[in-house]
Structure formats: structure tokens, C-alpha cells
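Sequence only, no structure available. Ideas?
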Amino acid sequence: MKAQDYHNTEFSSWESLTKRMEAYSKSKTSKSIWQVINSFVPYLAAWVFIIYSLSISYWLTAFLIILAAGFLVRMFIIFHDCGHGSFFQSKKANTIVGMTLGILAFTPYYKWHRQHMEHHATVGNLDKRGNGDVWVMTREEYLACSRWERLKYRVYRNPVAIFGVGSLYVFLIQNRFARKDMPRKDKLNVYFTNLVLLILFVGMGFLVGFTTFLIIQLSILYVAAMSGLWLFYLQHQYSDVSWFRTKDWDFRKVAIHGSSYIKFPKILQWFSGNIGFHHIHHLNPRIPNYNLEKCFKENKIFQEVPPVTFLGSLKSLRLKLWDEKLKRMVSFGHNS
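Reply:
I predicted one. C-alpha cells follow.
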């Protein structure tokens, strides 16, 4: 669906679509508990098998590390849902589960979700860029920059910098610090997360060896972080994406035209917790991840959004700038 077809839907109004989506926003405790179990327990089991595999085969160890990373990504999606208050009906349950899984993902619960709420409120808005998203310059801004500023932006937008370096930087370093302007609750949560991680490091170090623990934990975290950032990148960085100035910005418009539908094979859809239906999530973040596919199948408007496939995701890496005249993402070498 193109931006000009925004209002040409099967619904008489966006209000009716919003009401229709409320049915999917009701979480079911049994489903939520089962999702925690089938993500958390296999993750712990993978850790045990990884330790034993070190004396059997490093190839087996590598496979199990990738598998554990997949479960960690899935747990991060649950952590994400908890912050939206969509995973459990109980706020307390969302907080407890979210904080616990956040620690395993090296991510402080309150700090991350405060930034994520800003992301939902500003995504796709050219006048409010930089809130929890991948920085995008317009082509006009880029051409007006100095050579030094262009070089910095090119380095920042390089896949090696974003996924190779950025993944560990975000989860190992950036998440460890509290900003001065953060609320006291958020700061305490950062300190608490760091303290628990330190206790886990010391405990696991004495149990399996500090070097062994570091190698395994950093390997799992690195694979999971790269995968997670890749997913995050594709959610708003793809060929059919649309950006708007504040006067034209609308969260519903951005949900359909500024948030992707990533078409995954079933196994990857499972490990990524249905986050590929990101256009639906941005229209109603109160829908738990296990209801997103049902919402997609039962509402034609979501199926009309062009899917981002694996090949399309690779091509998106070439897109670095937003061209306001052409209304689309372009590469550095593009000549309009």
C-alpha cells in the first residue's frame, strides 16, 4: 500500500479499525506463562549443554550458542511486550517478568522502555529524529554537511559499525550507565541491573570458570544483539518506508507506511516473537506478540503492506538517506 492510498481501506474510518483491534489486545495469562516457559527454560538448558559441549565439539558449541541467542532474542520480545503492558493484565507481573528477562538481556527495564515510548511517539517524524531509532539524515542535510560530518555519518551507517560494533556497545556499555536527567526510579533500575549482573558473573565464574563464562556469555549476547539490531533496523529502514514532517505526521499513517512487515520463515518468526508484524505493533502496541499474526490474517489492510523479504533486507543496507523530493530512501551515490 502506498502513502497516497492511506485512506483507501476497507474500513469506513480509522476509529472503526482501532475498535476492531481492541479484541486482539487482550492478553491471556496461560499463553503468556507458556511463552515464558518455552523461551526461558530452553535458554537455561542451552547454557548447560554449551558447557558440556566444550569437551565434545566446538562446532556443537557454536550451534548451541546460536540456538541460545535465538531464545534470548525471543525473551527480549517478551521483555518488550511487558514494557507496553501487553503481556500480562497485571502491571506487577509485567514488571517482574520484564525486569528479570531484561537482566538476562543486559538491559535495564525502566530506562529502555522510557526511550522506547519516545520512539513510538516520534518514529517516522523528520523533525523529531534520534529518539530510540537509527539516525537518518535527509539527502539535503547530508549534501550541506562538511566532509568531516559526512565521513562520521558514513561510518555510523556502515553495517559493520551498526551491527558489528554497535550491538556490543549498546548492550555492554550504553545500558550500564544512567543519565543525569533520568528519573530516580530509572537510575536505581540501572544500578540494580548492573548489581545483579555482577552477582551472576561472580557466581557463574566460580561455578564454571570466569574465562569460560565470559566467552559463552559474550558469544550468546553478541549473536543475539546483532540479530536484535538487525530486526530493529529493518523495522523502519527499508525501501518502501515513509517519513513525514510534523505537520503531516500521524501515528496511524506511520504504522502503515513507516513500519515494516518482515516476512519470516516460520522458525524465525517464532524466535523473533512475531515482531515482523511491526506495522500492527505500531498501530496498537497493546497487542501481545502472540496475537499479532491472528490480527494480520483477519484484517486485509495489514496484508496490503509490501513485505520485507530476506533479499529485500539485504538491499536495504544500501539505503542511507531520506530524499524529501523523491519521498523515499536513497543511497549515498544516488543522483536525483
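Residues 1-11 have pLDDT under 50 and may be disordered.
Hope that gets you unstuck.
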